Hints:
This protein has seven helices and nine strands; from the N terminus they run αβαααββαβββαββαβ. With 201 residues, it is of the alpha+beta class. Helix 2 (35-60) packs antiparallel against helix 4 (82-95) and helix 4 (82-95) crosses helix 6 (153-162).
Amino acid sequence: MEQFQSYLNESLEEGESIKWQGTPAPSELLSPDNKKTTMRMWIISIVIAAVLSGLYTIYALGDNATAFQPFIYVLTIGFPLIAFIDPIRDLKHINTQFFVVTDKRVFIFHKSTQTENKALVIGFDEIDVVRVEGLEPGYARMRFGSASFESKDVKLHRNATHGAKDKDDKIRGLVFYRLSGSDCNDICPLIKEKGIELEIR
C-alpha cells in the first residue's frame, strides 16, 4: 500500500532486499474460526449492559427516584459494549495491514505505523518454524514462529495486530491473518530457502 512505502524504505537495512509484499485477503467479521467466540462475547456484553441498566432503573425509580441520573446509562451500557466493538475494530485493523518479506525479515505494517513510525518485525534468524493453515478453499493463514501457534480467537487477533510477545515484550511470532493461496505459494519457497521448518496444515 502506497501510504506504507515510505516507512518500509526507512525500515530496510543496508543491502536488505524485498522478496515479497502484499495485503491480506479481506476477512469477514464472523468467519468460521472466530464466530463462536465473537457471538459469545457479544451476548455476554448485551446481558451485562441489560442487567446493570435494569438494576440501576429499579434503584433510581424506587425510594431514590430523586437521585435519578440518565448519564449513568452511558456507563452501564457503554462500558460492557466496548467488548462488542472490539472485534469490529480488530478486523478493520487486520484488513488494512501491509505485509512484507525481505531476505532477512518479516514485517507487518499497520494503521498505527503512521503515528508510531514502526512496524511489527521479526528476523528469519528468530523464527524456528512457520506454519501454513488452510482456511476455506483458496485462502490460508501463516504463523511465523511457534510462539504464535497456540493462539486462537481473540488472542489470535491480538497476535495479528500486536505480535506474539514474550514476558519482556519482545516479538517472538507474527501472524499473516489471511492470505490468498497464490500469495502463500509465493512466500513458502522464501521460507524454505532460509532452511526454516515449514508446516502445512
